[in-house]
């Protein structure tokens, strides 16, 4: 593929960009989990959303280096633009780099909140305003939602909230999130993947599953890190109970109060349509090992 440079000349796409596209495709083929979203239904962005994405992502967004560690640092064409693009990308989620500026008061480090599937950013923005000393990263796979969230972060002048355009399970199961680095993980109103047959044949596509919980056992802060889930779907609520009883509790997960949840498009719609919202919280306390 050839692209036109700023001076009007046609040049080949950088080796780095081609390597990233190739790596993404290879990782998708080797994925060990089922997609929790429908990849081919992304709605077109409005002109405002396109402007937000183009002009605000560098300031309020995070991009990750998609290549395996063995490929990083190689494959670039050596141009200044290619080097600049590479330097902007994160190899791992470095919270201090994303949110510079000290602690959360009293010398304590700021609490780190990761929202998976943040949608348009309604809850993310409201939480960042309410908890000024916390830092928030919203992860969303659909670009229109990312673009809308970018615009809200800019409009409100927030410095403690950013967004990442990525498959949430790809982020959590890869090498991107360091051990014991998250205080709160939020999953609000995920796709319920309803099965009207009553057989619940789509349960494997729900994001709260064994894959996510296993990754959180590594990435949440031991003993204090928390997973908070909200749903307005009765099938999903029963699914959460099954996952907790059959998988989570035997591994050391315990129930707790969830993190604060704020109004959002999905919460408002549930109330308008007469559905109640279920909020649950879980902490991971690994079983102690007795040494004889």
Automatic annotation (TrEMBL):
EC number: 2.1.1.33
Domain of life: Eukaryota
Organism: Ostreococcus tauri
Catalysed reaction equations from the record: guanosine(46) in tRNA + S-adenosyl-L-methionine = N(7)-methylguanosine(46) in tRNA + S-adenosyl-L-homocysteine
SUPFAM superfamilies: S-adenosyl-L-methionine-dependent methyltransferases
Keywords noted in UniProt: Methyltransferase, S-adenosyl-L-methionine, Transferase, tRNA processing
Stated name of the protein: tRNA (guanine(46)-N(7))-methyltransferase
Root EC class: transferase
GO cellular component, one term: tRNA methyltransferase complex
Keyword Transferase annotated: yes
Stored Pfam families: Methyltransf_4
GO function term, MF aspect, one: tRNA (guanine(46)-N7)-methyltransferase activity
């Amino acid at each position: 593929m050839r692209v036109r440079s700023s001076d009007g000349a046609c040049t080949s796409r950088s080796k780095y960009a081609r390597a990233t596209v190739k790596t993404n495709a290879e990782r998708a083929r080797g994925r060990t989990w089922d997609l929790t979203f429908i990849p081919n239904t992304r709605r077109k962005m409005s002109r405002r959303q396109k402007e937000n994405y183009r002009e605000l992502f560098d300031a309020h967004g995070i991009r990750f280096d998609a290549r395996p560690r063995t490929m990083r640092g190689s494959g670039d064409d050596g141009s200044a633009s290619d080097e600049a693009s590479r330097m902007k990308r994160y190899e791992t989620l470095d919270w201090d780099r994303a949110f510079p500026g000290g602690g959360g008061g009293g010398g304590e480090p700021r609490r780190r909140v990761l929202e998976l599937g943040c949608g348009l950013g309604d809850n993310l923005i409201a939480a960042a305003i309410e908890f000024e000393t916390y830092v928030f990263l919203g992860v969303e796979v659909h670009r229109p939602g990312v673009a809308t969230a970018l615009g809200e972060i800019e409009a409100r002048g927030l410095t403690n909230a950013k967004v990442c355009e990525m498959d949430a399970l790809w982020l959590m199961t890869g090498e991107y999130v360091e051990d014991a680095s998250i205080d709160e993980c939020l999953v609000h109103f995920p796709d319920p993947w309803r099965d009207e047959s009553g057989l619940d044949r789509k349960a494997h596509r729900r994001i709260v599953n064994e894959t996510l919980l296993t990754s959180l056992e590594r990435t949440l802060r031991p003993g204090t890190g928390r997973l908070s889930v909200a749903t307005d779907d009765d099938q999903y609520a029963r699914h959460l109970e099954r996952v907790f009883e059959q998988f989570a509790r035997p591994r050391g997960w315990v129930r707790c109060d969830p993190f604060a949840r704020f109004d959002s498009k999905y919460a408002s719609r549930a109330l308008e349509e007469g559905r109640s919202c279920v909020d649950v919280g879980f902490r991971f306390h690994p079983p102690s090992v007795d040494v004889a």
